[in-house]
Amino acid sequence: MHLEKGEKHKGFREKLVYRCCLFSSRENIELKVYLVMKLAKTYDPNLYEPNIYAMWEQSNAFDPTGKGEPFSIVMPPPNANGNLHIGHALTVTLEDAMARYYRMKGRDVIYIPGADHAGFETWVVYDKVLTSKGVNRFDFSREQLYSQVWNFVDQQRGNMELQLRALGVSASWKNLVFTLDEKVIKTVYSTFKQLLDDGLIYRGERIVNYSTKYQTSYSDIEVDHKKEKGTLWHIAYPSSDRISEIVVATTRPETMFGDTAVAVHPDDARYKDLIGTNVFLPLTDRIIPIIADDTVDPTFGTGAVKITPAHDPNDFEMGKRHNLDRIQVIDFNGTMINVPPQLIGLSVDEARKLTLSLLQTQELLRGETAIEHSVGYDYKSGLPIQPLIKDQWFIKIQPLAQRAKQALIDGEINFTPESRKRVLIQYLDNLHDWNISRQIPWGIPIPAFQNVDQPDDWIFDERVDEKTIVIDGKTYKREEDTFDTWFSSGQWPFITTDALDGGPLSRFYPNSVMETGSDLLDRWVARMIMLGLYRTDKVPFKHVYLHGMVLDEKGQKMSKSKGNVINPIETIASHGSDALRLGIIANRSAGQNQAFSTNRVIAGRNFCNKLWNIARFTESKVGDNFKSTDPQPSTMADHWIVRQLMTALADIEQKVESYRFAEASETMYHAIWDDAADWYVEASKSQDNPAMLAWVLDTSLKMAHPFAPFVTETIWQALPWHEGLLITTSWPAKVDYDEIAAAEFARLAQLITEIRFVVTELPGNSRYGLLYGADSLIADNAQLIQRLARLKSVDFTDQPRGLRLAVSGREAWLDISAETLREHQANLEIRLAETYSQIDNLEKRLSNTAYVEKAPVALVEESRTQLEQCQTLVKRLTSELEVIK
RNA sequence: GGGUCCUUAGCUCAUUUGGCUAGAGCGCCACAUUGACGUUGUGGAGGUGAAAGGUUCGAAUCCUUUAGGACCCACCA
């Protein structure tokens, strides 16, 4: 069994590699779709997608045209050495649909792709490589590590970009930006310099979130806070006169060796007299003071709290207020230092146990209580985060945050979903200074140097490859830290468009839309807005569209451990890229975490096949020598399909432009399947207007192209009457139609539907003939009706017999026997009853004077019309029943 | 503690400023069919919109409360 599974997997890999080779091939893209289309009944995406993509790319179809109003989207850069997951598929499907739509609408479109060095993420991967080789980062210099990781990433690179191609993104590859490209680094340095000059960056000792596993600090957003049950230990600190004691409560007894005070609330009657006295720090020979501070909560624990400025952010602040010493007792690798000899070198956990047992021995433990508190964990390793003091670079964030907030309040950026804007404003208000230093080598070095003789003297200098530099006889030592990745990616919109130096792409700044996952609202979107405004005085984008997480079909989060991960590339290999795109865009609204099922993908695949077959039929009807002309609707069906497609187009435009992608694709789907295929193609079997048929196909292809680019372009290329590319053709133009003729066809369709319904309801399954009286609509379309309603015959009669068709109100009878007729009676009676109840409702509504007076006139008018129609129907049904009786 | 969101058909979800009989896909039932398509066609069943109350001529939609669920932020000795 396992073998089989493995082999299947292997087969898939080979297929994938093959496809990726095709995507990257630059030769032999001559397409032989045309001949194949005549033969193959089903559309096989694997045969065409790679070549179609290569064709687009070689034709420069993804490049901006320089004509029309600019429209720009910058892709959130996927990890350069990673693989795409289903979330990327959603992102790029939405982005690409917009890019393709606006391109066809004549806008000057750019979709800028990117690749992320993914600083910390990649570093974690590489760190494992080092570990597996039995070495560690401290065996190498920053330069050595940087170039090692660079080579490592370089080997893996390209895969992600091929996968984006497989998804069909119409991105401007020539303008791809890697987050470690020179222009990125240059801009990041200049932003740093400007912040420094403006006094918005400072270096200082602060308590940072420290990962002892990866030996780097984190920003607040990289810490996972988990609520958990813990223990609050009560520990007695004997007073210096050995007469009394004060009992403190703590969850972290091992940090007591770093205590430099005990704090109580100034008004706490229990301890008032003790303020200013000293206590012995147990297990040591140190004496520490009891101090008073407002921030102590007298109702928590014992009301007395040990103060450890080196290992707790609040204690750190209190320590500053009271001039307390900071004694570091946990090292940067997570082991104990500056503690009694038997504890030195222990891990935090071991130290806690030993400390407690030592206190126990000395009878200083005064009890313990269970509490629920939240503990910060390293989001990557899952180990606890240690709050430690470190010299770090910080951005004074509030000036930037408030400016961003004002821009949001002023409505300079719109959000889908709208409510996220308020969430963001709240976030900006609560934002603390941003630690931008990271102690990992894979990233952009912080361009700062420290005077070796004067530690407070820091200067900006870009010569980061030099370990020391000499300026005016003073020696400066470089900063070894690198920037937080979000500091550089927060500048992404203006870097990728060269907005600062006004290059040719700067017309695309601010970006039209920023589309990304709602989980990135604070960590990325907020930072782009702040830094964008700071550097360019403009918001970086005009609209933010946030999508939710893609869950598995049961609504569970996808994860490797659960084994429910859907690999988009695998889905493409089995159902095609378009099918995946159609499947993932359907049934999905902004901001919601929503389930994704392959059912939808299958539906998408079926739709592609539908298009394929409409094309096959059209081509066979239209012939090889057809020359495309302006559509000339002549028959009722022609006018009707023009009306349907025009209505659908307008609807799609409105929906895409208001970011309602699922609804837009649904409209497109139904216009093509229900109207074009089910009615118009069927109707055209009884009429001859090849130019119209070709126009219907062309319009359908254009309409579907933003959502299903590959199959539409494949067909377009196969049709002998097209020369250029569908991707660069224009969105369908308005075509006039005759509303009356269109409405006539709709009535005909109604009649046909009624016949189908009645026939299905009739006992037996034989075909019936249709008799009609003085009804020119039926007379003129006898053949069409016969075919579509599957009738034996359609004949004129002046002697009606059989079953009168009541609903559509035509002079028409189904030629059935009296016996069958009687069996049908019951159906009619049900329908009559339903109509009566509808009339009842309408009458109630219309007799309500408040409704008639206050509701819009059109609505009231509509109700009246409906009532009339129902009353007519009742008459007909009644008379029909009389005939039967 | 502060905030956001969700609860609609068997399943997954739509339904934009309140307004026609609340719609799709899949699933289900019945029937059909040999040349565009079985990855098909035709017809159908299935919803007191989480619960209760309110505003309104009219509520899935707005307000209040309750229940259940997801998430974000802050603090936690």
Task: Write a concise synopsis of the structure shown.
This protein is of the alpha/beta class and 885 residues long. Helix 1 packs parallel to helix 3 (45-58) and helix 11 (397-409) crosses helix 15 (521-536).
Describe this structure in words.
It is a single chain. This protein is α/β, with parallel strands linked by helices and 885 residues long. It is 45% helix and 17% strand. The chain has 28 helices and 30 strands. The strands form ten sheets. Strands 6-5-14-16 form a four-stranded antiparallel beta sheet. The chain has a four-stranded mixed beta sheet with strand order 10-11-9-12, covered by helices on one side. Strands 19-18-21-20 form a four-stranded antiparallel beta sheet, with no helix packed on it. Helix 2 (33-39) packs across helix 22 (709-718) and helix 21 (690-704) packs antiparallel against helix 22 (709-718). The longest helix has 30 residues, at 818-847.
Spans of at least 5 consecutive residues with low confidence: 1-18, 24-30
Summed over residues and divided by their number, the pLDDT gives a mean of: 87
What is the straight-line distance between the termini? 68 Å
CA-based shape: elongated
Question: Helicity range of the residues?
Answer: 40-55%
Number of helices: 28
Coarse structural class:
alpha/beta
Give the number of DSSP strands: 30
In what order do the strands lie side by side in the largest sheet? 6-5-14-16
Radius of gyration: 37 Å
**Beta-strand percentage range:** 15-25%
Major sheet size, sense and barrel closure: 4 strands, antiparallel
